[in-house]
Every structure is written in structure tokens, then in C-alpha cells.
Amino acid sequence: MKMDSDLNRFHKIVRGKIKKELRKFIANGELLGRQGGKTISIPLPRIDIPRFQFGQQQRGLGQGDGEVGDPLPGQPSSGQQQAGDREGEKALEVEVSLEELADILGEELSLPRLEDKGTKNIEAVQHKYTGIFKQGPESLRHFKRTFREALKRAIISGTYNEQAPTIVPIKDDRRYRSFRTVRKPETNAVVIYMMDVSGSMGEEQKQIVRLTAFWLDTWLTRQYTGLERRYIVHDAVAREVDQDTFYRTRESGGTLISSAYQLALSLMEKDYPPAIWNIYLFHFSDGDNWSGNDTTECLNIMNGNILPKANLFSYGQVESRYGSGQFLRDLEKNFHGQEKVALAKIKDRDAIIGALKVFLGRGH
Fold first, then answer.
1. Sign of the dihedral through C-alpha 201, 202, 203, 205
2. Rounded-to-integer distance, Cα 238 and Cα 194, Å
3. How far apart are CA 136 and CA 187, in angstroms?
4. What residue spans define the domains of the chain?
């Protein structure tokens, strides 16, 4: 149908516009407030379908009086303009599913599909209805089919009365759903977010973390049927918090990064056996740690406990005027070339897209 063809064409144009503006959407926090359920509202500039347009009948160019710089007929003149009485152009609001947004992100960044780690042995049991039988439990009785059989019997036997259409099913009329058990592999994943909330981490740094986490969530949710999220904040002490507290908390104490890694490891060992869970850890900080001894403790926890159990450990270093950035250099020195470790420096919002490519581009 022509309507379907036009709709598909419009859909392709919208998708192309989103891909073209993806870098701006990633860096702009406006989308975070537009999320609703499984869709997100994206503002797009006016979309015009290419078409021929007839011009006005008028004299050809180069004829008649005029000076260089004079406007052509129908064009606005330069200089002061009076207030108009027409509406201004409005952006078009387009509802896009988070799944489609994830696909666009994957296409634009050339992200590989994530490889599940040993979760194929988890099976979700589902019941699939396959037909209608004359016998079965009352809980599976198909009322519509039962009524239809009773009506057919009444009409064929001549007992159906249009003036008093009462239909009473008997035993032979009853129909029941049949089903078979279907076992489907189910892949589950947990994302553990960790963030330094010491005094050197300002509001802009936390907003960068929030934007990065939104796009990480969008991609990972597309890859896994079940995705859990855990949130850890730390200064000199780590604690688990909810999502809202994660982005709003700000402390003024020192920084002991190992406290966050110890808590993350505790969550992994308690709730997420690595044989049946895909585990992703994302840590964000400005790179200041209390001492070299604590950095050594972090490296020991990663090497001996976290990395053997996790699919991926990612560290994003946001830039602040107070952070030295030393922790990123320490990680680069000790984990250069390590497949399970992804490191990125997120200088500003424009650098988020590059960090996403680093974090998600390995397919783990």
C-alpha cells in the first residue's frame, strides 16, 4: 500500500536524521528527561520530503531596474524587520524505541554484538499454546470455542430460538487449550556502576557520568533479556546506593578507590555467580587516589578477583581542575593490552562518544 510505503520512507528519513545528529544527542542531557517507558522522545528539525515546487510567474532575472544587493521578489530584505504574525518553526517530536536507539548507536559506532559468557545453560521455562482439545483441565477451558460449539449444536439440532437466544454448553461442547513446554536460553547481565563522589567531582563531571551511563544502559539492555544495575559511591568509604542518590551525592572527604572495588567484589560473590551471569563494571573518577599503596591494593583486587569473574572492567576518567589523573596512568601501565580492561579519558561531553566506542567496542 502507498501509505505503508510513505511510512517506511518517513521512518528511514527519521533514522537518518538521528544518525546524523547522534553525536549531539549523546552530548546533550536533554534526552534524559524525555525517556518514558520503552520509548524516548527525540526533537528533530523540520523534515521536508523532497518534491517539485512551482515558482511564481514573474519577469526573468536580469530584466528591469535594480541595483547590486537588492533582494529578489519574494525574498526578505536585509536590515530591521517588523514583528511577524506567524508561528515560528517548531521541532518535530519523534517517538523512538530504546531498542531502535541502541541499534542506531551500534551502527554508527560499529559496535559488535556482545558475546555471552557461559549463560546458555540458564533456561527460562515458558508454556506455548499449540491447539484445541476436547479434554483438559477447567483452568484451560477455551470459552469462545466452547460457546461456538454449543451454538453450532443448537442450530443443527433446531433448538436455537432467535427470540430467546439462550445457549447452554454441555460436556461435548467444551474445548480446552493444549500447550507444550518450551525452554529458551536466557542471558542475564549485571552492571555495577562505581563513582568517586569526593569534593573534586563537581556537577558537570557527574552529568558526564550520567550521560555515559544512559547510553551504556541503552546498548546493554538491547543485548540482554535481563539487566540488573547496582550503584556504588565512594570517597574514603564505599557504600551501595540507589540510582537517584548515585547521581546526586557529593562528599568532601578523601579518596580510597579500593573501598569501591572491595564492595563491588562483595556484590559479585554474593549475588552474581560468574558462571551464569555476565558482569560489567564501570568506574568513574577524576583520577585522584589517596596513596600509591591504595592504588596497589586496587590492582591486586582487579588481578586476583574481579577480572577472572567479569566480562569487562571499564574505567572512565572525567577531567576536573582538582584531579591529577594519576590513576588512569597507573591502570594503563599495568593493564595495557588486557582484553578485559577498557580505559578512556572523558575530557568533556564531546568525548563521551569516544568512550562508548572504547567501552563497548570489544564485544565482551
1. negative
2. 9
3. 34
4. 1-47+92-110, 123-183, 188-360
**Superfamily for 188-360?**
von Willebrand factor, type A domain (3.40.50.410)
State the cell numbers at 160.
436455537
Distance of CA 345 to the CA centre of its chain: 22
Contact yes or no for 290/236 (Cβ under 8 A): yes
Cβ 260 vs Cβ 283: under 8 Å? yes
Are the beta carbons of 216 and 316 closer than 8 angstroms? no
Question: What are the cell numbers at 132?
Answer: 484445541
Question: Would you call 83 helix, strand, or coil by DSSP?
Answer: coil
Q: What is the pLDDT along the chain (364 residues), one digit of tens a residue?
A: 455 565 567 667 767 777 777 778 788 766 665 555 566 677 666 555 555 666 665 555 555 566 666 665 555 555 555 555 555 555 567 777 778 888 888 888 878 777 666 544 445 555 566 788 888 888 788 888 888 888 888 888 888 888 788 888 888 888 888 876 655 555 688 999 999 998 878 888 888 998 998 889 888 888 887 789 999 999 999 999 998 898 888 777 788 999 999 999 999 999 999 988 999 999 999 998 888 899 999 999 999 999 999 999 999 999 887 777 899 999 999 999 899 999 999 999 999 999 999 999 876 6
